[in-house]
């Protein structure tokens, strides 16, 4: 095993820029690692060996020609399969998109390529990003590198597992209700959900358009910030993209690493005081809050009375938007077509295709969403949920008048055994209890490793006001500087 795979993205970038190692060597070390362990981890749905080597060689050629390289040039990255990548299979882990090769790149992908980064391949996920364990992938689950009998979180379990297994130093995830932060927490890695609109949704296979947010996954806070800087910023191709400068997240991560939080006001959400959470998770959380106090932060409790309604509101809004977004998968435009034998009508072909192409969880959401949006029920369900969303936003706004950031455990429980929660959708939905409010509000949230409970990673979530992404990086880096990073047992 090459030592290169253990380095941070920041260190790899420096070594490549200085010529100490070539981008090709770094890429091949990661491809070798994937070949060695991915049979057991299954983080990847598709590995683009040729494309990766070619991209790495292009970086090496630029350097040889005397061009100055950016901080992440030549650094490999794994991309969640929900992101459209030109000419490379993009299935969102669904049978309905099997074999689809997009004719264009998502904006985040364009920016990754422009930064000279090297895409290793596409990572596994819950189908259409609906789930919390990656067990709803149509192509089989991903296994948590900390314990291969356990889930790596979801929906972005493949991206998080690829980091924990040292198959990639960086990855892209998308967070609609927690799918970057929750997998980060249960794999001992860092996952950041930027402010909604801070990163472009163009080329992201849509789940719930008012919530979907692409963001960085990494093993260190600084690495996440470096990737954040690459992918964030206004995009005229996304009408909800924010036309404002990107907060200086890299400087904030460096500042936080100094470990001084004097004058920072940290809020604990009263309503997240631990009901339903594992005692081991709450113990790590209390220790981390204690550590923040030692770094000089002032910790106070704040009340967010409507957070308790976040989960039900989310499970009306997200399915409603998904029922509309997924209407495009009709057997005509993309991927799978079933029953087109000349005897079935167009409508029958659409219905047979959707029956065969969508998994149970996706069907469940389409049915709930269609019901919630139908006339006569719209006001009672979707309309009510939108009102709750407003109240949750108000809770955040009022909290941020008192404190700079809010903190909570990222998840109520550590990585559970495969199969433990698939029989009861509600048990699966509970994984996002602490992450969903942030999505409904639109602010940024990050999960940073905080400790271990029974040998399994626990994450701390830091939530900040919209467009104050830098604040959460500062606090997360301070946490990292005192609690350190966590290395899984060798695979
Ligand atoms: N687990 C949540 C869901 O199933 C969130 C998913 C996500 O963030 N993509 O909807």
Automatic annotation (TrEMBL):
InterPro entries: Amidase, Amidase_CS, Amidase_dom, AS_sf, GatA. It is an enzyme of class 6 (ligase). GO terms for molecular function: ATP binding; glutaminyl-tRNA synthase (glutamine-hydrolyzing) activity. It catalyses: L-glutamyl-tRNA(Gln) + L-glutamine + ATP + H2O = L-glutaminyl-tRNA(Gln) + L-glutamate + ADP + phosphate + H(+). Residues 25-471 form the Amidase domain. Keywords: ATP-binding, Ligase, Nucleotide-binding, Protein biosynthesis. GO terms for cellular component: glutamyl-tRNA(Gln) amidotransferase complex. The active site is at 80 (charge relay system), 155 (charge relay system), 179 (acyl-ester intermediate). Belongs to the amidase family. GatA subfamily. Allows the formation of correctly charged Gln-tRNA(Gln) through the transamidation of misacylated Glu-tRNA(Gln) in organisms which lack glutaminyl-tRNA synthetase. The reaction takes place in the presence of glutamine and ATP through an activated gamma-phospho-Glu-tRNA(Gln). Heterotrimer of A, B and C subunits. NCBIfam families: gatA (TIGR00132). This is Glutamyl-tRNA(Gln) amidotransferase subunit A.
């Amino acid at each position: 095993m090459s030592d290169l795979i253990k380095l941070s993205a920041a260190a790899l970038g420096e070594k490549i820029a200085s010529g100490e190692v070539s981008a090709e060597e770094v890429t091949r070390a990661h491809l070798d690692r994937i070949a060695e362990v991915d049979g057991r981890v299954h983080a990847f749905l598709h590995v683009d060996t040729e494309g990766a080597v070619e991209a790495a060689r292009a970086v090496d050629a630029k350097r040889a020609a005397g061009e100055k390289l950016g901080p992440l040039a030549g650094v490999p990255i794994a991309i969640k399969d929900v992101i459209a990548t030109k000419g490379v299979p993009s299935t969102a882990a669904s049978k309905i998109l099997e074999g689809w090769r997009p004719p264009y790149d998502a904006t985040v992908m364009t920016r990754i390529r422009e930064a000279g980064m090297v895409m290793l391949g596409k990572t596994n996920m819950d189908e259409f990003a609906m789930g919390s364990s990656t067990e709803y992938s149509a192509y089989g689950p991903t296994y948590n590198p900390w314990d291969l009998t356990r889930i790596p979180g979801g929906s972005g379990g493949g991206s998080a597992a690829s980091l924990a297994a040292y198959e990639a130093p960086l990855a892209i995830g998308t967070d609609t209700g927690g799918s970057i932060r929750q997998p980060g927490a249960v794999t001992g890695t860092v996952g950041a959900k930027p402010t909604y609109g801070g990163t472009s949704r163009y080329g992201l296979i849509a789940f719930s358009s008012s919530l979907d947010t692409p963001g960085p996954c990494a093993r260190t806070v600084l690495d996440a910030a470096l990737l954040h800087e690459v992918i964030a910023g206004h995009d005229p191709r996304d009408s909800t993209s924010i036309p404002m400068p990107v907060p200086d997240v890299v400087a904030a991560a460096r500042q936080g690493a100094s470990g001084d939080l004097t004058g920072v006001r940290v809020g604990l959400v009263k309503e997240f005081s631990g009901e339903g959470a594992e005692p081991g998770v709450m113990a790590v959380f209390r220790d981390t809050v204690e550590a923040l106090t030692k770094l000089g932060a002032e910790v106070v409790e704040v009340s967010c009375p409507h957070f308790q309604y976040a989960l039900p509101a989310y499970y009306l809004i997200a399915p409603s938007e998904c029922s509309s977004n997924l209407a495009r998968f009709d057997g005509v435009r993309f991927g799978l077509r079933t029953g087109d034998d000349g005897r079935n009508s167009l409508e029958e072909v659409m219905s047979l295709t959707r029956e065969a192409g969508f998994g149970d969880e996706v069907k469940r959401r389409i049915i709930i969403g269609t019901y919630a949006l139908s006339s006569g029920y719209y006001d009672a369900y979707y309309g009510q949920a939108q009102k709750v969303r407003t109240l949750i936003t108000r809770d955040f706004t009022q909290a941020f008048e008192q404190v700079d950031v809010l903190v909570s455990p990222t998840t109520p429980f550590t990585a559970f055994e495969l199969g433990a929660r698939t029989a009861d959708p509600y048990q699966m939905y509970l994984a996002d209890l602490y992450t969903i409010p942030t999505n409904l509000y639109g602010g940024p949230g990050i999960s940073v490793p905080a400790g271990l409970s029974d040998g399994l990673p626990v994450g701390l979530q830091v939530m900040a006001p919209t467009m104050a992404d830098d604040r959460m990086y500062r606090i997360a880096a301070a946490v990292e500087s005192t609690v350190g990073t966590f290395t899984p047992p060798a695979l």
